[in-house]
Write a structure and sequence with these properties.
The protein has 15 helices and 3 strands. By secondary structure, the protein is mainly alpha-helical. Helix 6 packs across helix 14 and helix 8 crosses helix 14.
């Protein structure tokens, strides 16, 4: 009887519109299992150092990868009109509440790293609430922008427009406190702030508000760095590596004010660049990388792109990045072709989140910007990020059914 009710409920949720975007599903699934492969290849030093079973990370990531693909397929069959609002608001409010109470939870339930509580410790694994909150945050913006901003005139007095956007500044301010201060994770704030800023552009806001938001964003970013000594040290360490290439284009007097002396170059980024250079065009071969053997710690997480480049070379990295670009392109294509404004804004936000996360990580490991600790979508080891990404893609696949229905 219960089974029959569950089947009836599931059947009721299945979309009667078009088919989901199978190319997006295939591209995303391929990336997931590429990440599983390199979670085995690149984790060898960590396995030996902590005396784990050699398949420790592979088995975990493979299991999560299978679940992630299943989640994408399951969500892709459902009607977004019936599930997106519940899932979006559920992720937003549940994980916002979890992040609020995390500082007050006992140590047995919270995993601490570097003085920051970022993970909820559950039986056999840890959960990162911010990964799931990001999906809810994007849905909240899409839903609220549709209700409050799209119908407003683009030309408004600056004060009126500020008051119109004030609730979003308040919500984002709360997120800054929870994530940047309590979890000490500035990278996620940069990511969410960039998504918020760009989504406002598509929500019919004026140019003058963007100039003001840009100035406020830079001021907030600088303030968050100044109040945290470890961030100042990270900026100085990064600058010590790139200053010669920049100062050579500036007047000689600038050298006296801007040059950082007696400050070590960033260890991780230095070895990351060595790994990239060591890979050459064709790579050393999967499993044959050298820099992962203690020189580049935890390479299967934040520095996975450097590890992949060493073992797969430029050509291998090019193919993998091309797959990721195809995923982003398919999402943006769905965003431009769906007629419902909420779906348009939500898919736009998801595509932006994936693209910006990749750029932040890629620029960080190559020394262009300071390291921010952002995972590479689909590729970095970590169950929370992968499961959250599968929910993102699953919801976009669900929405993609509406594209064909709209075109018919």
């Amino acid at each position: 009887m219960i089974k029959s009710k569950l089947i009836d409920k599931y059947t009721h949720l299945i979309s009667q519109s078009g088919r989901p975007d199978y190319f997006l599903f295939i591209f995303a699934s391929t990336l997931i299992f590429v990440g599983v492969l390199f979670s085995y290849s690149l984790s060898v030093y960590t396995v030996l150092n902590f005396e784990y079973n050699q398949f420790h990370f592979f088995i975990r990531q493979f299991a999560v990868g299978v679940v992630a693909v299943a989640i994408m397929w399951f969500l892709s069959r459902l009607d977004p009109d019936k599930i997106l609002k519940n899932i979006g608001f559920g992720l937003f409010f549940v994980f916002l509440f979890i992040m609020i109470i995390m500082p007050f939870l006992p140590g047995a339930l919270v995993t601490e790293s570097g003085g920051a509580n970022r993970w909820i410790r559950l039986s056999g694994f840890s959960l990162s609430p911010v990964e799931f909150f990001k999906i809810g945050f994007i849905y909240f913006l899409a839903w609220s922008f549709h209700r409050r901003l799209l119908d407003q005139p683009k030309k408004m007095k600056l004060f009126d427009e500020i008051m119109l956007l004030a609730p979003y500044f308040g919500v984002f301010g709360l997120v800054v406190v929870l994530v940047a201060f309590l979890q000490k994770d500035l990278g996620q704030i940069v990511l969410l702030g960039a998504v918020l800023f760009i989504m406002m552009i598509f929500a019919n806001r004026s140019f003058k508000i963007f100039l003001m938001l840009g100035a406020l964003g830079v001021g907030l970013f600088v303030s968050l760095i100044i109040v945290a000594p470890h961030r100042i040290n990270r900026i100085q360490s990064w600058w010590s590596m790139v200053q010669d290439g920049i100062l050579m284009f500036l007047p000689s007097w600038a050298d006296n004010y801007l040059r950082v002396k007696e400050f070590p170059e960033p260890y991780q980024v230095g070895h990351s660049l060595n790994a990239i250079a060591n890979g050459g065009l064709s790579g050393t071969g999967v499993g044959e990388g050298f820099l992962k053997l203690g020189f580049l710690s935890e390479v299967h997480t934040d520095f996975v792109l450097a590890g992949i480049t060493e073992e797969a070379g430029f050509f291998g990295l090019f193919l993998i990045v091309s797959l990721l670009i195809l995923v982003i392109w398919r999402i943006f294509k769905i965003s431009t072709r769906v007629s419902e404004p909420i779906y348009h804004l939500f898919t736009l936000g998801i595509g932006l989140m994936i693209a910006i996360a990749f750029l932040i990580n890629a620029f960080g490991i190559s020394g262009i910007i300071p390291i921010k600790g952002i995972a590479v979508p689909f590729l970095s080891y970590g169950g929370s990020a992968l499961l959250a990404m599968s929910i993102c893609i699953g919801l976009v696949l669900s929405i993609s059914q509406k594209v064909e229905a709209d075109d018919e």
